[in-house]
Every structure is written in C-alpha cells, then in structure tokens.
Amino acid sequence: MSNPNQTTVSASASPVTSISIHDRFRASKDASNLRHPKVLHPLENEGLRLLILENISLDAVATFRAQGWHVDHYAKAMSEDELVDKIGTYHAIGIRSKTKITQRVLNAAAKLLVIGCFCIGTNQVDLKAAALTGIPVFNSPFSNSRSVAELVMSELVVLSRQLFERSFELRTGLWNKQSKGCWEIRGKTLGIIGYGHIGAQLSVLAESFGLRVLFYDVVNIMPLGTARQVETLDKLLSESDFVTLHVPELEDTINMISTEQFAAMKKGSYLINNARGRVVDIPALIVALQSKHLAGAAIDVFPAEPGANGAPFDDALNPWASVLRALPNVVLTPHIGGSTEEAQTMIGQEVAQALSRYLDYGSTIGAVNFPEVDLRAITAEQTGNIRVCHVHKNQPGVLKLVNEALSPYNVEKQYSDSKGEIAYLLADIADVGARDLPGLKDRISSTDANIITRLLA
Q1: Where residue 134 sits, what CATH number does that domain have?
Q2: Which of 206, 209, 310, 351 has its CA at 20 to 30 Å from residue 416's CA atom?
Q3: Considering the domain boundaries, does residue 151 fall inside one?
Q4: Contact 191, 244 (CB under 8 A)
C-alpha cells in the first residue's frame, strides 16, 4: 500500500553512448562549417630563394623545400665578401653564429625579405641596419636551454673531480689516482648569473644534485624550488663555490667578470661561461687561475672564434689562447652549449616556422628587431581577399595615406605597430580584382615612408 505523503520522483536514465570526447572532436573537424586557412603567395609569384648556411638542421631545409621554395644549403659559414657576391638573388637567409650580416651585406641584398638566426643570439646581425632595410630577424632564444643546462651540470662534476686532467693523463699512459682537491658537488653552492630560461632550468637540475642555488639578475624573478635571489653580484660571487654565466652580450655585460670580480670570488672556486665570449675578461681569468685563486674553469665561448671546423684556435685568433690552453683543470669546448641533436631539431623547427609565417602570412611575432604584428588567417573561402604587408618609416601621416589607397575596398581587418624608426602594417582587404593589384601596390609603395610593400593573395 502506497504512502499518500510520499513524493514520487521519476528520473530518466542518460542514454548509454560509446561516443567519446575525442570522437566528437574528430567529427567536428570534418564539419563543413569549419574555417580552414588559405595559403597565401606573393603577388609577383616569383619563386622564393633561400640561402641556408652553417649546416643548419636538414629538417628545416626539408620544410622549406616542401613549400616549393628553392633552397641552397651550405655546411660552412660565408665571409662578408662571399655573401656580398651571392646574396643579391635570395629572398631569405638562414645562419647560425659564425656568419656576419653587416651593413655592407645588407646593401647588396636587393631582394632580401627576412633573416633567420638558427641559434640563440643575434649579435652576428646588424639588427638596426636590417630593420631600417625592412628586414625582420628571427631567432630561437629558448630551444637549446635544456642542452646548455645539462652541459653546465656535467662541467660542475668534471671540474670538481678534475676529470679532464685525469682523463688526459691516462690517455698519455700515466696512471695518477688521487683524491686531493677533488670534491663532491653535493652541499656546495652554485651561483647563477642570469636567471632566464637556461638559469631557471639549471637551478632545478642543480638542486636535484643537492646543490644550494643562488642567483643574481637585474630584475626580480620568482625563483624555482628553493633557489634564492641575491641583491648584488658581489654577494653571489663571495658565497658561491661555482659561478656560471647565462647573460646576453650587451654593453653592460661585456667584461662583467674581470679582475675585481675574480677577487671577490671564494678561493678555490670555479667559473663556468657558456653565455657569450666577451662577458668574461679572459686575461684576468688566466691571472686568477695561475695564482690558484680559482681552482678551475670551463669556457665554451670566446671573444673571437674560428669560422669553421678544423681552423686553428691559436694566438693569432686570441693572443692569450696558448696560455689558456696550457692551464690545468680548465675545460675548453668549441661553442657546443646548444649542440645537441634535440636542440638543433627544435631550433630548426622554430626558426623555419617563423620564416614561413613571415613569408607566407606577414607575421612578425618573435622578431627581435621589428614590431610584432599578426592577423588571423584569411580563410580558404575568402577567394577575393588579399593581405597587404607594409613596412614603412615610423612617421606621421602614413596610415592616412595607406587607408586612402585602401578606401575603394572593404578593409576586413588591420593592425599596425611601431618599434623605434620602423613601423609595420598588416591589412586584409576583400573583393579585390586581379587587375587592381599592381595599381594598389604602386599607390602604397610610392609613399615617401615606404620601405617594403608586399601583397599576398
């Protein structure tokens, strides 16, 4: 017998389904209303030619060739004279650290649109001159961070155990087993100068080895783990058993570690430099090593470096080279901090993508010397749309003139930004006939402020 005061609640069971969220996503990708980006091409339809130097990742070369571009790939760097002779026919160039892009090279680069530095640094390029010529420069500032951090960790152990000396002795036939002056790194203090991507990764690895980590940086940074930021460089130097540098080469960092700084370091400590060759005063380092104030050093970068493998590293290149090479417990490596298969693959992918985005879509996101401008893609259905890429001098009145040239058309989206003396505008316009394009480009590029104007359709 039912209770008249009891409320009956009916519930319908959810239908059992075997469709997962992944199935729904795959189905949505097949939907006809999904917008796909349109592949853009230069108005001139001129085959893009790329010059790739210094044995850059073959994956990057394959990426460019897969897009139908002509690629000339060379394993070695080129001298300034060689570049001046060759670069005039190329629209893009990819280099690493040894090729120098100077004002003279840029003057000869009549067709050059973009420069890719397949490495961290860009000091091998005259960035201001490139910008004034309308050429953005892209690099890969973080792809080799792990490789450099791991090299530092290996150098900590190699220096503290004098492994370099013992290995060399045994190779010459001398058995010299000893423990004097050899230490565990556990419990020691690592001082990191520059707490960027490399410094932060290094700090985590170092703590897993039982090291105490201090760091010094010009800006306040949230530390990882139990690392601690110190207020002054001298405090870091005086408390650290190992000091490692991870800073860019700037006016303020050239010779930032010199005689005064070596004197501030603990007696018996070690210096590691995998940053830039001119941030350490090498003659002052030699004095600190010869006096036994420092117990050792690891140096991967130098003020002047050979242009190719097999070239001598001698006093003709750096006047102190032979003295440095003869010092005990000094590990010298030929700028290999980022030279791993993984790092080179990632660098190749990142810089190749940046160059492709600029050449195909005009995007300057990630450029080191240029305003960073981007627009969402033109869709495949927008057949009558074109993209205007206008590099110009940063001066008043330019946008007015450009918008007057664009006024007969519907401007669907537009974005511009400036950096120093350079400004860059992207605009997508609709319903443009093929016969309109040459005249439109002429009207925009004939303005006094014009540097480079490209139309992509």
Answers
A1: 3.40.50.720
A2: 351
A3: no
A4: yes
Range of the domain at 242: 182-294+301-332
Which backbone phi and psi does 245 adopt, to 5 degrees? -105, 135
Residue 47 is encoded by which pair of tokens?
Answer: 């085959």
Q: Tell me which of 80, 207, 239, 305 is the catalytic residue.
A: 305
E strands, 197-334, where?
212-216, 228-229, 242-245, 269-273, 294-299, 330-332
36 is catalytic: no
Active site residue 91: no
E-only strand ranges, 22-69: 49-52
Determine which one of 91, 276, 387, 454 is catalytic.
Answer: 276
Looking at the DSSP assignment, which residues form a beta bridge with residue 292?
A: none
Does 24 fall in a domain? no
Q: How many whole angstroms separate alpha carbon 139 and alpha carbon 353?
A: 11
What span, in angstroms and rounded, lies between the C-alpha atoms of 68 and 397?
38
Total residue length of the chain: 457
Number of domains in the chain: 3
pLDDT of residue 20: 52
Which residues, given as ranges, of the chain have pLDDT below 50?
1-17, 21-22, 24-35, 45
| Residue 62 sits in the same domain as residue 195 | no
Residues 327 and 384 in one domain: no
Question: 411 and 348, same structural domain?
Answer: no
Residue at token pair 């930032």:
256
